[in-house]
Amino acid sequence: MNIPSRIGILEFLQQETHALNKKLFLLTAVSGVANAMNLAVINASVDALKTGGPSWQHFLWFGLSIALFVYSLRYVLYESSRIAENAICSVRVRLADKIRRSDLLALESIGATDIHARISRDTAAIAQSARPLFSAAQSAVMIAFTLGYIATVSPLAMFLCIGLIAGGAAIYLKDRKKYEEGLNTSSEEEDRLFTSLTGLLAGFKEIRINRAKSDDVFGDFAETAGRVRDVRTRVMILFSNNIVIIEMFLVLLLGAMVFVLPILSGSFTGSATKIVAAILFFFGPLGNVVTMIPVVSQVNVTIANLQRLEARLDDTLEKLTSFENSPIIDMRGFKSIRFDGLHFAYRDPDGNAAFQVGPIDFTLRHGEMLFLVGGNGSGKTTLLKLFTALYQPQQGVIRVDDEQIGPANIQSYRDLFSAIFSDFHLFDKLHGLRDAAPERINELLKLMEISHKTTFVDGYFSNTHLSTGQRKRLALVVSYLEDKAVYVFDEVAADQDPHFRRYFYETLLPDLKRAGKTVVVVTHDDRYHHIADRVLQMDYGTLREVPRSLDPDAPKLHFSAGRSAPPKEGSE
Ligand SMILES: Nc1ncnc2c1ncn2[C@@H]1O[C@H](COP(=O)(O)OP(=O)(O)OP(=O)(O)O)[C@@H](O)[C@H]1O
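That's the Putative ATP-binding cassette transporter sequence above. Prediction below.
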């Protein structure tokens, strides 16, 4: 995997938006200078009090520096917020685009929690830090110019100030590696906390009815939250120590001006008030800079996390992108889909093959109705993912008629399918079906016997609080609307009542076949095998054709966990 070199927030913002321009940096500097000017004018006006009071020029300069300060600071803060939001929007949209074009297996291995954490939490943290960062930059310029002003009053005082500020900076830089290591660990622990919270919410029903489970899950969450607290507290203590030291340096600075400089320079006494005022003036801005230090370190870690996620996605996309814009070829008129020596293995984290499917040699003919049976974990869903090209085989090829499926035509191939997997997702809108007529949708809702529960109004279904079986029927409505050449149903009938189950097998599936569709159904309902043209059985990742049971009331096939039952005696 190509891990890009680490970048800071400014490089990140520039990479994402190309909007960091000279005007922004110039006005950041101008606002710092204008703020320093405010001090110089006020000090000069205080001086003038001794000789009859400030003149109209003092007043003019005061007005000018305030106007300049307000204009430039407003521009910098507005613009930095706008740039940060644009950067975040751009990175979110790009990552979402890479995710949708990515490979299912790669996404499964990255995990939804990691993706959620990066795209929501981490990007928000970056956006929140951009404006304070520019504010701190403005403060830094202001401090620099205030030091320049101090130099005009007493060069020795300026050197003393620089020495003490450099001391503070050295203390921070000395511990920088420690901060970043601490923040890295804290980010990893926060990801675990995120996973734990997801479990708490997703498993709410299970933990609500089981006290021991609830206590255990909560205990895990509390333990992880405690670890996050400990790591973050350690890092924040480091920061806090340094902030205290830096603040102490500032007070020391004031002390040095009052107690040390008059000893070193006899002519200094008269200027002491001006210099003390200047130092007090940059107390606040220096605070801005100091508090920004941990934020910058945190954001660097966050940006590195985002880069790592993007590098993983890029890794998978590398092989596919050159074909990204290949035109979609209409394959609906295919005669057969052939698997030649297809082989696929899940890998464990060390790269060793875990569960394997194949070699699979098999031909599906156009318009055929195929049932896929097999015990739990025998590989049926994995085969469907290979069949629909969601997984890439490690060996072997898929051919549509004589055309081999590869990167250039894989999307055209996938476009043949409408699939309902057992972990299907129902979108709240009919995406990709903008032209679907509401009358047709309501007709399908009737066909699936859920029109009494939900109707289609203004682009949405009126009710989505449906039972599991009803949700599957709604998924069937969407699938029908997609009107694809090949239908793949992974245990769609599993949660249906006997009446609808019968209707599904004896009416809906034969209707699809009559309409010229090719249908592949994963089923444990062996009493309906007679509906299929062929029955195929998965057994520990291997596929074989088995005789159909033509008598719906014949004794059932029995599957034990991980094994498929032998073909039933007397079956065809
Ligand atoms: N993403 C994954 N990573 C690693 N192993 C996986 C993954 N998905 C499934 N497996 C493993 O592959 C094997 C086959 O799983 P699959 O879901 O294909 O079985 P199945 O026949 O559809 O089972 P069921 O009837 O229970 O739905 C199982 O042992 C499972 O643990």
